[in-house]
Amino acid sequence: MNEMKLDFLRELANIGTGHATTALSQMLDGKLFQLVVPDAQMLPFTEAADYMGGLEKVVVGIFVVISGDVQGHMACLHPLESARTLIRLLTGEDKPEIDEMGRSALQELGNIMVTSFLNALSKMTNLLMMPSVPGLAIDMAGAVWESILAGAEVAGEVTVIRTRFSAEGEAIEGHIIFLPDEDDFNKIARQFGLEEH
Amino acid sequence: MAKTVLITDDTAFMRMTLRNVIEKNGYEVVGEAANGEEAITLYQELKPDLVTMDITMPKVDGITAIKEIMKIDPQAKIIVCSAMGQKPMVIEALSAGAKDFLVKPFDAERVVESLRKIGS
Fold this sequence. Notes:
The structure holds two protein chains of two kinds. By secondary structure, chain A is an alpha+beta fold. Chain A is 45% helix and 30% strand. In chain A, strands 1, 2, 3, 4, 5, 6, 7 and 8 form an eight-stranded antiparallel β-sheet that branches. In chain A, a hairpin with a 2-residue loop joins strand 7 (157-167) and strand 8 (170-180). In chain B, 48% of the residues are buried. Chain B has a single domain (4-119), classed as Response regulator (Rossmann fold). The two termini of chain B are 13 Å apart. In chain B, helix 1 (12-24) links the parallel strand 1 and strand 2. By secondary structure, chain B is α/β, with parallel strands linked by helices. At the A-B interface, helix 1, helix 4 and strand 5 of A face helix 1 and helix 4 of B.
């Protein structure tokens, strides 16, 4: 792994995640405090799943396909408990099951987080990055991974950004996955004056 | 008489959030569309004073819907409410005929301010 590329990725992750969590905080009426500096990793597919808590953990995944000047895939994953907390904070309702309105709230939240992340990168690079209508899956992480990666030609490594924050004293965990196509990743890097070696 | 509003967004949660804000401020929500296609049909049926329009939606997206509605009624007052705040998209929406562009997440005040400004 090229050190410079990883550094660059961390920087992208910091900026993108900063914008995404600011957006989330605004949706929660400023009730959110970020605790941990986002940690960006480039990992092989199988290790990425472990890093996020294993393939069998039940998670909520919101995923989009990116088109425009940069193509690729992006997703937000939350452990089920964190997703429930988010629904409660967004809708004011506390239900044992995730109902239609809960799914809809999570979908909108994921959409806003992912799009804010892309808006920040777009502003810095002058490259258009349009997310598709988001998909939503609630399942074991392995199955959600399949939904996210269907269509993404992941040859080797994936970029995972882990964030932890809290809202009204409750911890919320989330992972943001950014998968630009390899050529397009280099396009972003070039906009920042980084050359591939 | 209260001004009428048609809300367009593909998520039920955002339609509910917008409806609450809009109704609390003295406007009447006459319809909700879940995609651009529904927005075009409902616009013709309901002839609302104002329309809120999401961009990224299934079937027919917001940009196409703005263009179609402007063809039907060049006086249509459409306010975009979308997370997709990248410059080329904002320019495209405004050139298609949208009167304002609110980037999600927005606060209630900003929505009301836009409805007042565009609706007057």
